[in-house]
Amino acid sequence: MTLRSLPIYIFLFLSCNRPSSTIDNHSPLVHSEEQLDSIFESFESIAYEQPKQYVSDPDSFFNSLTVQANSPYQREMYAYGLLFMGYGLLQHGDNFESVKYYEKAYNYIKANQVPTENINTEIITPLANLYIQINDIQKAIALLQKALSETTDNNETVRLSNNLANAYLYNAELDSAKTILLQAIKRPSNTLSSALLYNTLASVYDKEQNWKESTYYNNLALHNFEKSPLEGDTLLWYTAALGLKGSLEKDNSYVNRAIAIAEEHFPNAQNRFKAKLTLIKGDILKEQHHLDAALIAYDNTLSYFKSEDRAYVLDYTYTQALIGKAHLYTSLQQLDSALYYYEWAVENDFRTQQLIVSSRDQLSNNIFNKQTIQNIIDLVQSKPDLIHKKEIVQQLLWCIELSKARLLINEINRSESWSSSSDKTRIGMQTIRNLYHKIDISVDTIEKRKLSQRLKKTMIEFELSERHFEATQFEPQKARFLKHLNRPNSDFYAYFVHNDSSVTIIHKSGQEFSFKRNPASVPLLNLLSFKTTYFGDTPNNYNQNPKEYREKAQYLTSELLPGIRSAQRNVFISLDAQLYGFPFDALYDDDFLVKKHNFAYLNSFLLFDFLSNKTIEESKISVFYRSEYPSPLPNLQFVNTEVEHIYDNFSARKIGPDEQNDSTIRQQFALPNIIHIAAHTILDTTAPPIIYLNQAISTNQLRFYEMKTPLVFLSACNTGYGKPLPSEGTESIQRVFLSKNVPSVISTFWFANDQTMLDLTTSFYQQLDQTADPICALGEAKRTYLQSAGSVEQNPWYWANINYTGIGNEIGLKKSSNLSYYIWGMAILILLGLQYPFILWLYKTVKYKDKKTYNKSK
């Protein structure tokens, strides 16, 4: 990873045409047009010529400009000032801030139609390469593909091809990288451009572990460099090739030469580039078992970032140097130091990964990070006395939980920033949601393809306009994390599944922490077999032999839930890998565990930090439902009864198929109401999960809804099931609601039994009305069900599929209004009250008439 970053780093310095500007004035109190011209010329001039004035605190410099550009000339100066800030920050090694200001420049130019000489060269290319630096590869690929499709200049085509090949290289699309490089090599270009292409191709072959081809193209690159004049940026390209040669031959003489050139020609700049070279040097020394020298090299790598002790630098080179030091201290048997640097690396990696927007790159980094966690656990286990130290187990728990749900946490924070975003971002969200909607309902393959292409272009513009890097504030603190685990009446179990299928379990009960690692394969294989046998398509396996079920469930309890007999009422479980979708409350310890405990599932205990605890004193319920479906889907017989019960007892709005238009659905999700959905869900191995209301709503659509609901109840089948994601759980409907900052979600693991679902749903809302606690309410609903269930209905297949995921929040229910009943009651009472006078009047009238008739007859 380090080696591959070198070739692309050098392309970040090719992208700005630098117009000269020299005026440096202070802003007067009253501004004429000429004075405004001078102010913006000064801003542009400092941004280009004096980066030292802002690189340590770019936001302060930017915010000191308090006037607005009026004329086209002022807007051009302002745009180039932003662009030069991005370039200056890049030269001084601040990738994070550089991305932010390049994005500002891009958005300003697009919004104000500022003319540029070549936006691809000036902004798109360096911005895409910065995305590669921070591992947001999908975003880089999209930008570079767009730029390449729009250029007609041969030299620019060669340069963009090289940059795109590097993006493919980072994305492990090696065939695509080789194809585009070999095509570019055939184009006429100068010697230096050829050298760049050769060296990138050498990196691709290096990634394939084809050392022969890699060495061949690296030598070609060096040959072309050495017969060309080298100065400025071309020296960086040359040193990158030297670094690659040193790595290929495990010879630090080449790396030292590259470092010396960089130090001589860039003494006060290019620190990140020099850090990458010293990281290569450290890796070579470590591999050659020169441990003390390797330690010095890693320290040099860290020193280029000029950070204080235990600081965080949003850069993967920094993280890798910390991991390198941790490995060295492990080899030197200095375990306290090793754990210190491992923990620091995991914390730094977490913060750096949150810069990444694309889900694919997030998931790829999750896999890389998992190996670090396994190294930490192996280190702790290597010294048996360590696993009994409370502070060590706490440290391990902290690192494990930081390794999970990173994409989900990123989605939560992005979603929250969208709620207060600009009008442009909101329009972008609406456009994306509409495109997903059209894709979901379309049955035409060609139309779907065209819509997907439009969506891809729209997503590029949206991700640039949302200003993700300006809203990024991820600072999880270990002390706060541990404080969240002090909830009353609660125990906590965290799981980590290793590559060999062994399972690490950390249990917190009261103030005690315990560590356990189950042997490879045994409990996990038993669990998977147990899940398949008893929670598949039929309840029959349990009914045939309940005793056998209880024995197997008792074994799994002892393996997966150590100390459960003394655990508190509420049990929070942080899941991992194959443990998702397993009903822990259906395990057994003299009786079903649900009889004593309420279970709440989480992707990571870090969600206590990131999900909002939305407390609602009196919540209404918005009920979306559909009971009748076209073949082959069966009708849902229980839905109408379920809806009527909710409507009759609580303040609720029934939203049937006739009302389920886009506007109504969005409006209800944006209210602080409970959302109850009773409908079919559709799962497909190739497409995102779908809620099938009047029209299909995919999880893609849901991601772009505004949501303020405190609880979502998914009264449908398989809403907690989906495609497994590395360290993220499953790509399920339930998970999407969590990503929209919904703190409580009730979903199902497998097909729901109609009558049982109706009974549990009815009981859940009754219990929620009494307790205002959704975790407790679901547990009590299950216990109430089991109290009256017959021996057949005791089967967990019927009741264990429904589960709670979330952090636990207080939700009161608003009762159904009885005003209409009062009105009718009063009317009846009034009628009854008037009945006697009316009868008396009628009696007197009739009697009087009879008397008159009698008198006349006489």
Automatic annotation (TrEMBL):
Chain segments annotated as coiled-coil in the UniProt record: 127-154
Presence of the UniProt keyword Coiled coil in the record: yes
Transmembrane regions listed in the UniProt entry: 821-843
InterPro entries found in the cross-reference section: CHAT_dom (IPR024983), TPR-like_helical_dom_sf (IPR011990), TPR_rpt (IPR019734)
Domain CHAT: 558-804
PROSITE patterns per record: PROKAR_LIPOPROTEIN, TPR
Domain of life: Bacteria
TPR repeat feature ranges: 121-154
Keyword set includes Iron: no
Keywords on record: Coiled coil, Membrane, TPR repeat, Transmembrane, Transmembrane helix
Record-given protein name: CHAT domain-containing protein
Organism: Sphingobacterium tabacisoli
